[in-house]
Amino acid sequence: MIQLEHITKTFSGQSPESQVHAVRDVSLHIAPGEIFGIIGYSGAGKSTLVRCINLLERPTSGKVTVDGVELTALSERELRAQRKKIAMIFQQFNLLMQRTCLDNVCFPLEIAGVKREAARKRGRELLELVELADKAGAYPAQLSGGQKQRVAIARALASDPKVLLCDEATSALDPQSTRAILRLIQKINRETGITVVIITHEMAVVEEICQRVGILDSGSLVETGRVEDIFSNPQTDAGRRLVYPDGVLLEELPAERVIRVAFDGGSAYEPLVASLAIDCGVKVNILGADTRNIDGKAFGTMLLGLPQDPAEAARAMAYLRGQPNVTVEEARDYHG
User: Fold this and answer.
1) What digits encode the pLDDT tens for the residues 197-206?
2) Which pTM was predicted?
3) CATH annotation of 256-330
4) In the chain, which ranges are E strands?
């Protein structure tokens, strides 16, 4: 559905030294119907990259193709027509405060020339989809943050887009409202097949909703993959900083052999350390852990200190390596 090929975006300054290289040679393919996350810390280039998808920011170089149409090759008039397929929601909602919820949802339909009766019928359907049918006559000032974002989502869907871009859409919400909005986006994705791109700095958002994720660092795409793969075994320093934000410095750990156990989708309810003690008679120290239960499956890592005795340590390694959905390696510095 979305193909980015060697996208670079440079903002000019008064001198070559003051140029800002916001996006650097990013290539990315996103499948139809996928929920794809783009994550990185502030200043990584996430928002610039997502604005390159609908050409709100025209790339300095590279090619953007959406639904088989190369947007970077279109005239401004042709581009405006294609943008109807690409909706966008933002952190600050951007609702028209003097309009009711129904009027906000109908606004893009009015601009498109849809007759008032048909527009309002479609608007009510969309408010029902986002579970705000009873708020049709309310004004944005009368709504909570989560409700405002629901209205923004309904408005974004008014033109029946094929792509929904979410730029930090839950960052201004409390945790309960965030989960509700993410569940709503999942529901819309499931029922309509719309492709969703989520820009966020929160790993919990990616974990909750996304199927694949790309990690941006200083404008470069440094890692992509399935969410469970990134969580269980990040391959880059940027990935490790996001997955393990508190880090683990090995020099702070006891002077013993330290191994890293990565869980990549086994049952979240298997007591691995207890089983090791019972089955092998080997006791290990848990030095650190960052694991998550995603749909009943375990993802993440655990740092274990093995016994000083070489034979016991070897038995423990052999046992752990024989477990399904578990990988074992000598630990490294995961502070990033």
Assistant:
1) 999 988 888 8
2) 0.76
3) 3.30.70.260
4) 2-11, 20-30, 35-39, 61-66, 69-70, 86-90, 163-167, 195-200, 212-217, 220-226, 258-267, 285-294, 297-305, 326-330
